Prior knowledge:
The chain contains 3 helices and 5 strands. The chain has 137 residues and is α+β, with helices and mostly antiparallel strands. It folds into 2 domains: 4-55, no CATH class; 61-132, no CATH class. A 5-stranded antiparallel sheet has the order 2-1-5-4-3, with helices on one face. The longest helix is centred in the N-terminal third of the chain and has 30 residues, at 26-55. The protein is rod-shaped and about 100 Å long.
Amino acid sequence: xxxxxxxxxxxxxxxxxxxxxxxxxxxxxxxxxxxxxxxxxxxxxxxxxxxxxxxxxxxxxxxxxxxxxxxxxxxxxxxxxxxxxxxxxxxxxxxxxxxxxxxxxxxxxxxxxxxxxxxxxxxxxxxxxxxxxxxxx
Length: 137
C-alpha cells in the first residue's frame, strides 16, 4: 500500500504554512494544497477499492445442458439442466434406466445403467457443464 494519506497530511501542513505563515506565498500554498488533494483522493480510492474487493459478489454459475441431437440450453441450476436432458432421455428410454455420474471438473454426464445392478453401461448423450461467468472488464 502506498503512503498517500501521509503525503496528503504533510502537504496540507505545508500548504497552510505557505498560505498563512511567515513569508506567505499564496501560489506555493495553492500548489501544495492541490498536490495534497491529489494524494488524499488516491488514499481514499485505495481504501474504497479494498472495501469493494472484500464485498464483491461471487461470479454467477450457470449450467449448460447439452443432449446429442438437441439444442443446447443454459440454466441457473444444475437440477434444471439435468431435467432438460432427462426429458430427451425419457423419450428414448424404452424401458431402460439412466443416471447421472458424479461431477468431474464441473461436468456431469448422463449414462444408461444396467437394470439389474444400476451400473453405467454407456453414455446417453446428455452432459451438463458448470460455467463460471466473470464480469466483463
